[in-house]
Amino acid sequence: MKRILIVKVTSLGDIVQALPVIADIKRAFPGVQVDWAADEAFAEVVHWSQAVDRVLCAPLRRFKKARRWADFKAIAASIGELRAYRYDAIIDIQGVYKSAIIAFLARSSRRFGYRNKDLGERGAAFAYTSRVGPRPPGNAWQGMRISVGEALGFEPEGQAVYDLKLPALPTATFEAGDAPVAALFHATSKEDKKWPVAHWAAVANELVRRGFRIVLPWGSPREREEAEAIAAQVPGATVLPQMSVTEIAHMIDACSLVIGTDTGFVHVAHALQKRTVMIFVATSRSHFGIEAPHRSVSIGDGHSVPPVSEALQAIDYVHSDPLAAPASTHSASHL
To answer: Which positions carry the signal peptide feature in this UniProt record (predicted)?
Structure first.
């Protein structure tokens, strides 16, 4: 094996959790080059990986929304980059039309994808010369590692290695200060995944009592209103200014604790080895959750609203007996 292409185009949390497949591949095939194809909106996240050799991207999401000529030309140019090398294998771990088209356009005689029942869109099957699966039951993130190993003929070993290195920022956008900082990621992509404002306020007030400084990030005007509603009930809580993805990642890296619903930045916190609690209200904890002894934990059954007491127990767990926690095989640092 000399060069392999991974296709995973979206979204933030999924891409972060897919990055460990690079370390798996390079452990199995020393010296191999691993390229990654992603939507332009998430390409910067792939660049955080110290193990990826080339990041290929195009404004697919933006073109779908606006249909601008400039975006079409950018997509056309990206096809040339995509076809610059011939790959020993291409593995599509997204399984939808746009990822399948990328896999099909790239140069290789071996293009792997999921079996029909595991595809996000059945029509994606046209692009593949071989199939992997069925997906094993359990965590989706470990399932991706197993699928890539099946395609290339090896079994993934040990814990997931994210190997992240955040790029330096021109100017600092967040200062942690002297008190430990807890970031509350209250916003989600869907209403049914939200945790009640009153619950957030209750947890935040308990953390303030324990000496934490509370910060509330947001990404839209509606999310800012929700952040302000929480902050209004929590003495000293800070509603952060709007930040870029990389700026938020740096903020997370400066925190002592991250609590959030099933959303991408909570996966970033886990990958950066922060003490993290993920709250599940309407999605599957067993399928999409995060777990690391005394560092990351997921709560909720995916069918009901977890109580404040369960969140506080999870916070106690990720702060319990840190000296007894096993050494992690993750690598996370920043310039």
So the answer is: none
Candidates 230, 236, 227; CA nearest to 198 is: 230
Residue 18 and residue 154 in one domain: yes
Task: List, for residues 297-307, the tens digit of each pLDDT value.
Answer: 999 999 999 99
Flag whether 109 is in a domain: yes
| Residue 240 and residue 127 share a domain | no
- Residue 16 carries which side chain, given as an amino acid letter? V
Calculate Rg over the CA atoms of the chain: 20
Query: Model pTM?
Result: 0.91
Which amino acid, 42?
A: F
**Nearest-10 crossing angle of helices 308-318, 197-209:** 40
CA dihedral 56, 61, 63, 64 (to 10 degrees): 140
**Is residue 151 assigned to a domain?**
yes
> What percent of the chain is modeled with pLDDT above 90?
82
Check whether residue 215 and residue 274 sit in a common domain.
yes
| Residue-range definition of the domain harbouring residue 234 | 181-334
Residue 207 lies in a domain: yes
CA distances from 113 to 151, 189, 330 (A): 9, 27, 27
For 206-225, write each residue's pLDDT tens digit: 999 999 999 999 999 999 99
